[in-house]
Design goal:
The chain is an alpha+beta fold. The chain has 4 domains: about 130 residues, Orthogonal Bundle (Butyryl-Coa Dehydrogenase, subunit A, domain 1); about 120 residues, Butyryl-CoA Dehydrogenase, subunit A, domain 2 (Beta Barrel); about 140 residues, Butyryl-CoA Dehydrogenase, subunit A, domain 3, CATH 1.20.140; about 120 residues, Up-down Bundle (Butyryl-CoA Dehydrogenase, subunit A, domain 3). Helices cover about 60% and strands about 10% of the residues. It contains 20 helices and 10 strands. Strands 1-4-5-8 form a 4-stranded mixed sheet. It has a 4-stranded antiparallel sheet with strand order 2-3-7-6, covered by helices on one side. Strand 2 and strand 3 form a beta hairpin. The termini are far apart. Bound molecules: tetradecanoyl-COA. The site of tetradecanoyl-COA has 36 residues, from helix 7, helix 10, helix 13 and helix 14.
């Protein structure tokens, strides 16, 4: 095994699938089920009785009383160990509870997510015992809220380019200067995880690297901008954070100095997964509302649920939701089984869930038609709320680059071992001269073509879809290799193939998650025949759709409009507009 990944998705880049890692689909044990039911019922009861999402949206505020009530239910310390006052939920339960919040109210889900999925996650991940004892109990019980401060005016997707600086003073304290932008919970939070550039000695030479600090509210020099007026999630608070000669003691440094970038990325891996779970909750809500709507609405003398185009929308929603949900819980279950490196899986779940929730709310909106457009109904608010998910915690575009470039790293190293990529390319042009190299390459290539990747653990009723998956996986790894040979290092600057590679691997992960989950359900004697058939039907739609999306990307790996796209885009940007008018021509 030459792979650098334990990750399921990482292995896909080599054309490999570790069946042990995806089968059986992770199931909740009895204790987890009970805990999940209790938590979900409590959240559901509270939200139904006490949350008026329309009012929250209009007022643009989550009150202190509401935060206290949410905290009372344990919702501010879901993943924190009991010794620090938390609920100590595992990843799956945590995800399920965040899903329930996403079902009811996106502003509250955002506030709670920003607080614990990212706000104080670095403290959990790399804080010392003393640091945890000092801060965690108040955070876990919701007495204090947390915020995650990475983004800056000039550093969004390019998180490494932050300019906020922390300078070490002679007495060991640090002085921080800079500005953070669009920080959720800023102002109301007491605890700020702030990423700053610091000077570190590397091989005796000073270098700038990112470090991670805690800044507490009330520290002199810490101030906040006006509350941002946003399209959606209006009740969650978003502000700029200003750090003007803020002095913090060395005890406020989280983790090793200079390791802040990796600390931030690890935090975002959890955050992206949690965001995905909240989106899955949203999807379930919108499917329910769409079903109620089409059942009740009559046109041309019958319920609109009987019309084919309506049925197509409803079934599509189900397939998308089932896929995203399966991927999210395969990932959380895999983490519980010991998966350490889930950066690719978490990025995939974030992309998938944020895009599917957007498609689903769009269809749900269309089904409610005229009503949906009126503020009197909640659809426009749901739509406004759902839009941000494709943007925050890493735009889906930068995450696609990240998935493609991180994933191809392993096969790229392998190819380097085989011979320089340029040599392989040259050898392929002139096989006679380079027989040795070609034969090494051909062996590796052949191993990808032989269908050794057939899945053995899928339910027999899924045979056709299992075969789809195996063929797709083989084609994918060959495309990865072809791309590396074609572009070499230049792949880093070429987003056209990056996007397609990411899109294909997203489909592979979605499909394997669905196949694994459905296999478990089909093998479960406690599931009724009727339910099994229903799930099987959704699975078939999901797999067929996934396959279609996969091949539309695969085809354009070779034949595409990339050059035209680049040319046209350049002209439009240069002219600052389309530049074609019926008056002129
Ligand atoms: S918070 C702000 C979110 N911001 C971002 O997500 C920034 C996006 N940018 C990036 O992620 C990075 O800059 C990228 C790196 C990936 C582009 N896990 O050379 P590199 C390691 C582990 O690739 P760059 C917000 O929006 C990498 O291996 N490690 O770096 C909150 C390498 O390590 P080493 C990782 O080219 C909103 C090193 O880093 C990862 O600069 C509130 C450098 O990598 C990773 N993932 O680009 C949200 N990535 O040095 C609340 C990289 O050892 C939401 N590395 O080789 C709550 C829920 C709401 C629900 C609502 C429901 C409706």
């Amino acid at each position: 095994m030459t792979g650098i990944f334990e990750s399921v998705v990482g292995n896909f880049f080599y054309g490999r699938i570790d069946e042990e890692a995806v089968f059986p689909y992770p199931k909740l044990n009895e204790e987890q089920k009970e805990m999940a039911k209790d938590m979900v019922n409590a959240v559901s009861k509270y939200c139904t009785e006490a949350i008026d999402s329309e009012k929250l949206d209009q007022d643009g505020e989550i009150t202190k009383e509401m935060v206290a009530q949410l905290a009372e239910m344990g919702l501010c310390g879901l993943a924190v160990k009991e010794e620090f006052g938390g609920m100590e939920l595992d990843y799956t339960l945590y995800a399920r509870v965040m899903g329930e919040m996403g079902y009811f109210d996106a502003s509250i889900a955002t506030m709670l997510g920003a607080h614990q999925s990212i706000g104080y996650r670095a403290l959990i991940n790399v804080g010392t015992k003393e640091q945890k004892e000092k801060w965690l109990p108040r955070l876990a019980t919701g007495e204090a809220l947390a915020a995650f401060c990475l983004t800056e005016p000039g550093a969004g997707s390019d998180a490494y380019s932050i300019k906020t600086k922390a300078v070490k003073n002679d007495d060991g304290t640090y002085t921080i200067n800079g500005q953070k932008l669009w920080i959720t919970n800023a102002g109301m939070a007491e605890f700020y995880t702030v990423f700053c550039k610091t000077e570190i000695l590397i091989d005796g030479k000073p270098k700038e690297r990112i470090s991670c600090f805690v800044v507490e509210k009330g520290t002199q020099g810490l101030s906040f901008g006006e509350k941002e007026k946003k399209l959606g999630i209006r009740a969650s608070e978003t502000r700029a954070v200003f750090l003007d000669n803020v002095v913090v003691p060395s005890e406020n440094l989280l983790g090793e100095p200079g390791k802040g970038f990796n600390i931030a990325m690890e935090v975002l891996n959890t955050g992206r997964l949690s965001l995905a779970t909240a989106c899955v909750g949203g999807m379930n809500r919108f499917i329910k509302e769409a079903a109620i709507q089409v059942k009740g609405r009559k046109q041309f003398g019958k319920s609109i649920s009987e019309f084919g185009m309506v049925q197509r929308k409803i079934a599509d929603m189900a397939a998308l939701c089932y896929t995203a949900e399966s991927a999210v819980y395969l990932t959380t279950g895999s983490i519980l089984r010991g998966l350490k490196d889930y950066q690719l899986e978490s990025a995939i779940c974030k992309i998938m869930a944020s895009e599917y929730v957007w498609k689903i709310i769009d269809e749900c909106f269309q089904l409610a038609a005229g009503n949906a457009y009126m503020q009197e109904y909640p659809y426009e608010r749901w739509m406004r709320d759902a839009r941000i998910n494709k943007i925050f915690e890493g735009t889906n575009e930068i995450l696609r680059c990240f998935i493609a470039l991180t994933g191809i790293q392993g096969p790229a190293d392998d190819l380097k071992e085989l011979g320089k990529m340029a040599d392989v390319n040259a050898a392929l042009q002139d096989p006679i001269k380079s027989l040795g190299l070609i034969s090494k390459f051909a062996k590796s290539r052949l191993s990808k073509m032989v269908p050794t990747r057939s899945l053995t653990k899928c339910h027999p009723d899924l045979e056709k879809y299992t075969a789809y998956f195996s063929t797709m996986l083989g084609s994918f790894s060959i495309q990865v290799e072809n791309t590396l040979i074609k572009y070499g290092k230049k792949i880093i600057d070429n987003e056209f193939p990056q996007e397609r590679i990411a899109n294909m691997v997203i489909e592979l992960y979605g499909m394997i998650s669905v196949l694994s989950r459905t296999t478990s359900l089909l093998e479960d004697d406690s599931v009724s025949q009727q339910k099994k058939q229903y799930i099987l039907d959704i699975t078939k739609i999901a797999c067929k759709q996934s396959r279609q999306r996969f091949y539309s990307n695969l085809k354009t790996m070779v034949k595409n409009n990339d050059r035209l796209i680049k040319k046209v885009s350049e002209v439009i940007v240069e002219n600052e507009g389309l530049g074609i008018d019926i008056i002129d021509f």
